[in-house]
Please model this.
Amino acid sequence: MLDIIMNQLDGNADFVILQSWLVKHGQWVKKDDPVCEVETSKASIEVLAPGNGFLTHIASLGEEIRVGAIIGQIVE
Model:
């Protein structure tokens, strides 16, 4: 199982907002496929899959997510 961790995207941002899931829960993804979009104070950014497998959503749309938090998982 691989965790999708919210990395630091904006030098000053401690939180981001989950705008949309680009892949449905349970759908197969490949490494580096965009899986969701998050919003920082400056831009909307796609988050990429860390590996191959089935996506499990953890974070909800509109949720404020702390940098370093797990937002989803990839299960082989």
